[in-house]
Amino acid sequence: MQISINRIKNEDEQKTAWAIRHEVFVIGQNCPEELEWEHEEESIHYLALLDGEPVGTARWRETEKGIKLERFAVLAVARNKGIGSALVQALTQELNAAGKLLYLHAQLEAAPLYAKFGFKPKGDNFWEAGIEHVKMEKA
User: Fold this and answer.
1) Please, which residues have CB within 8 angstroms of residue 32's CB and are 6 or more apart in sequence?
2) pLDDT score recorded for residue 6
3) Phi then psi for 36, rounded to 5 degrees?
4) Taking a C-beta distance cutoff of 8 angstroms, is the pair 2, 42 a contact?
5) What is the dihedral of CA 39, 45, 50, 56, to 10 degrees?
6) Domain count along the chain
7) How far apart are CA 128 and CA 59, in angstroms?
8) How much is the pTM?
9) Any idea what the CATH number is for the domain that residue 37 is in?
10) Between the CA of residue 23 and those of 56, 98, 117, 118, what are the distances in Å?
11) What is the residue-wise DSSP string for 68-126?
12) Which tens digits make up the pLDDT trace of 55-89?
C-alpha cells in the first residue's frame, strides 16, 4: 500500500479533488454546497493517492491570522489506511518552515488526528455547516 501526497498542478487534478470533496462533504455530510467552494483561488490544493488512485485531498491558505489548513477529505473506501495522517503530515512539514501560526477548524471527530501532529484546541466548540468543530492551533 503506497500513499503519496502531491500538490495539485493542473485542472484535471483540481477537478478530481473537487469530486472527492463533493462526495465527502456535500453528499456524505450534507454540507451546503455553496460553503464548500469558498476561497478556492487563493488556496494551495493537494491530492492524496493510494496505490496511484486519488482518494483524498486537503488545502491551505494564508489569512490575517496565519496559515489555515482546510478541507481535509478522504473517500470512505480509503479511510483508516493512514491517508488523513499523511495529508496532515505533508502539509505541516511543508508549512512549518514558514514560521507562522498554523490553524484549522477541526470536526470534533477528527480533532484527535490533528492533536497527534501538535495541534491544540483553542477556545470553545462551535458549529459550522451543521457539524460541531473546534479551532486548533500549532505554533
Assistant:
1) 26, 129
2) 97
3) -70, -25
4) no
5) -10
6) 1
7) 18
8) 0.93
9) 3.40.630.30
10) 11, 32, 26, 28
11) EEEEEEE-GGGTTSSHHHHHHHHHHHHHHTT-S-EEEEEEGGGHHHHHTTT-EE-S--E
12) 999 999 999 999 999 999 999 999 999 999 999 99
Let me know the angle formed at the C-alpha of 47 by 46 and 49, rounded to the nearest 5 degrees. 150
Name which of 78, 89, 91, 81 is nearest 116 in CA terms.
Answer: 89
Instruction: Write out pLDDT tens, residues 10-51.
Output: 999 999 999 999 999 999 998 888 777 788 889 999 999 999
Domain limits for position 77: 3-138
Ramachandran angles phi, psi of 39, nearest 5°:
60, 30
The answer to whether 67 and 58 have CB atoms below 8 angstroms apart is no
3-state SS, residue 40 = coil
CB 132 within 8 A of CB 117: no
Bridge partners (DSSP) of residue 74 are: 56
Cβ atoms of residues 84 and 46 within 8 Å: no
What confidence score (pLDDT) does residue 77 get?
A: 95
Q: Which residues of 27-55 are buried (b: 16+ CB within 10 A; e: fewer)?
A: eeeebeeeebeeeeeebebbbbbbeeebb
